[in-house]
Amino acid sequence: MARTGRRPGQTQTRADILAAARNQFAARGYAGATIRGIAAEAGVNPALVHHFFGSKDQVFVTALNLPFNPSRLVDTLLEGPRSRIGERILRLFLGLWEEPVTRLPFFALVRSVTTSPEVADQLRQFIETAVLAKVAAALDLPPLRVTGAAAQMMGLAIVRYVVRVEPMASATEDEVVALVAPVIQHYFDP
Amino acid sequence: MARTGRRPGQTQTRADILAAARNQFAARGYAGATIRGIAAEAGVNPALVHHFFGSKDQVFVTALNLPFNPSRLVDTLLEGPRSRIGERILRLFLGLWEEPVTRLPFFALVRSVTTSPEVADQLRQFIETAVLAKVAAALDLPPLRVTGAAAQMMGLAIVRYVVRVEPMASATEDEVVALVAPVIQHYFDP
Fold this sequence. Notes:
- The structure is a homodimer.
- Chain A is an all-alpha fold.
- Chain A is built from ten helices and no strands.
- The model of chain A has no long low-confidence stretch (mean pLDDT 88).
């Protein structure tokens, strides 16, 4: 028999932590939930939550099956010249939507956010504290500018991948980058 | 008794036409449905559909309870200097979202589009033929640029009004216009 690389007890514990996390985030929001509270509900030591996931951000990303990791986003923003930050972040974002493995959770997320005020609420707190605040600090920008860029990228995904409006849906990645990267650059490099 | 200004028979006929229109748009899409087919399903003369609604666009807008009228959009685009088109269209759009009477149908529309592939399909055809093509023709622009602007405005509405991410949710209209109008201008006045 093939080995899965993880003992069943660990798999179960990890699943218990994620179930407890979903409850805690739903009950208290992203800002109100704590690693300690999640561990208590799962009946494990808080150190074990850290061991499996590292941080509250990562527990949230895993529990809600989010298709991106905000730390990776900040790394991408900072890993090249500021003058090409618009293109860099846009290509990362388009890549996530082009890959079925990340696109499907994105679709599910868009549906949940627009139909469930509770999910919208959790996601709002997560975006504000774990994504926008970090990006704004890393780039030394007013947070409002960062929400402008987020709005452009979210709307692009809806027009191109959800509603699939032509000619945006069939445009090549290079065509989209040529049109939209200057806009992201406008927000991130005023 | 107060008069409603419309005889009961007319109100019923109008409702029958809208019900038939919803069926026809669902079955054939926006592009495939016709005034003639809608009239046939409602059991009325096509001239009566024209009398009540004017055009297929307007039947669609009324049947789906859309909170805007694409003809009004084109009028707004053209009614002032091209150098301020970004601000003009953005203020019109924000005004629709600030008014409860138009915001609630917008919310319902966002939910339907993200949860129902059929509604997304109908709306896509409508946006492509009745909105984007007209705007692109009126401004002599490649349609791809118009979809970029549409993406920015749709994403802005989701961040500001649906998910309500701060500080975008609480920013004043003038702050939003100062940040985002140059982007719409970039798309519409390259």
